[in-house]
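Reply to dn_fold:

You asked what the input looked like. This is it:
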Amino acid sequence: MRPFWITSDRQPSDVVAAPDGSLMVADWYDPGVGGHNMRDLDRGRLFLVAPDGHQYKSPKVDVSRINGAIDALKSPNQATRYLAWHGLREQGKKAEAALQRLWSDKNPRLRARALWLLGKIEGRGQHYLDIAIRDKDPDIRIVGLRLARQLPDVEEIDVVRKLVSDDSSAVRRECAIALRHQKTDQAAKLWAELALLHDGKCRWYLEALGLASDLNAEACFDAWLKKVDGHWNTPSGRDLIWRVRSKAAPKYLIKILKDEKIPTASHPRFLRALDFHSGPERDKALESLLDI
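and this is what came back:
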């Protein structure tokens, strides 16, 4: 059973199943809820919900042994998993066989935990990264990409190139985020490819593209304009122009506002986008809005 929230008219409580089947309920008090700011910082209760006569026993964790650490890594308790992770990390290659067995588990969460450790084994990072980004589970491919960002001998832009046309929009979102601090022409071209796959409906995908381009907006926007070759005025194209902070974007925002085919109900959105720009390019674009 995984942790979940229950709510009352006062405060939420965190509920989690204990290893012996009982329930642990953490009832806490926010000192600022409702605006009263009573500052009751020391208040809060922990309940054990169990039959009469039940005695709670905390399971013993032995992460000094590989098998014990593997069992602990499966725990829903984050503190236990922390101990397990470091225990297995210290074992290094000695733990590889056991982690490979966990990697073969049907549970994707356990597979991800195993992958994170397998990829950190010295000299084995690239091997497991290649396996991860070819996995059928998009969540595992995402873990692989995040792993690549932590491996010193891996060029994450090369991994993005392999996943840039992935069927999963979630994977492509992660590709975009991985490009955020990349300021090369190659990164801008990859961003443009990701932008072309925006369907004009997913706001999460759009924001990932925005975050990815913020530090390299001019090159990204220019690369995208070259890709669309004049066919920018589409729902997805207008989305990108609304979000990208390139100095060239205000000019296109004005074109959208002047386009009689664009519903006037969308105008406030594009006008508001101009507030996120500054400089002579924005000012010139606003002046042109007055042209008849």
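Residues 1-12 have pLDDT under 50 and may be disordered.
Hope that clears it up.
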